[in-house]
């Protein structure tokens, strides 16, 4: 980066493409693991029906993995330099996704079985509140780790962009969002291992729904800050 201008060094196309292609392939492999983990030979019509009932759990896991993939694509669109730190963080994201894909799937299957009143498969996977708490905690740890990695990725991208520019503002917004998500993942893990779980087994999962509320609150604060700045500029202009 040129310290005088704050312009970002654009990565060489081949260098950027190799890292992004590897990350894309790894996310595709993680999605395939979701299918393989639940795949069984279909020997009858009843087997087909049971396989179709597993689609909602697969869809939930697929949506979660795509959330992280889209975040990496957004990071890549900012054009950050693919230096050693960017490569290390991207590989850490890939490793974390591949490790936590199975806890993601186990929790989604159990949750959908519970929410469907036992209609969807997933019963018997977790025995008691003790195991439920640990599954929530493991899921929360995975979510926390991935959120921290994305926070670092977007802060790394922000450091190579002109301060106050459109790219810098976008990178800063993403970094704040993932920092908020990391806090929610940590809170969910703590609640999962607390005495509150038997009283409110839905609470660790419900915690994640506070992320959109937090993002909305941050956006509202940004708009108010921008409004105050515009008002201050107008006042200064009038006084002049």
Task: Write up what this structure looks like.
This protein is mainly alpha-helical and 240 residues long. It has one domain (13-239). Helix content is 76%, strand content 0%. It has helices at residues 13-38, 45-53, 55-77, 84-115, 128-159, 166-192, 203-206, 210-239. Helix 1 runs antiparallel to helix 3 (55-77), helix 3 runs parallel beside helix 5 (128-159) and helix 5 runs antiparallel to helix 6 (166-192). The longest helix is centred in the middle third of the chain and has 32 residues, at 84-115. The model is unreliable at 1-9 (pLDDT under 50).
Quick recap of the structure?
The protein is mainly alpha-helical. The chain is 76% helix and 0% strand.
Task: Give me some keywords for this one.
mainly alpha; 240 residues; disordered N terminus; 0% strand; single chain
Radius of gyration: 22 Å
Domain module tally: 1
Structural class: mainly alpha
Low-confidence stretches: 1-9
Distance between the terminal alpha carbons, to the nearest Å?
Answer: 38 Å
Count of DSSP H/I helices: 8
Residue share in β-strands: under 5%
Largest sheet: none
What is the number of strand segments?
Answer: 0
Estimate the mean pLDDT confidence. 80
Identify the overall geometry.
Answer: globular
Instruction: Give the helices and strands as they follow along the chain.
Output: HHHHHHHH
Helicity range: over 70%
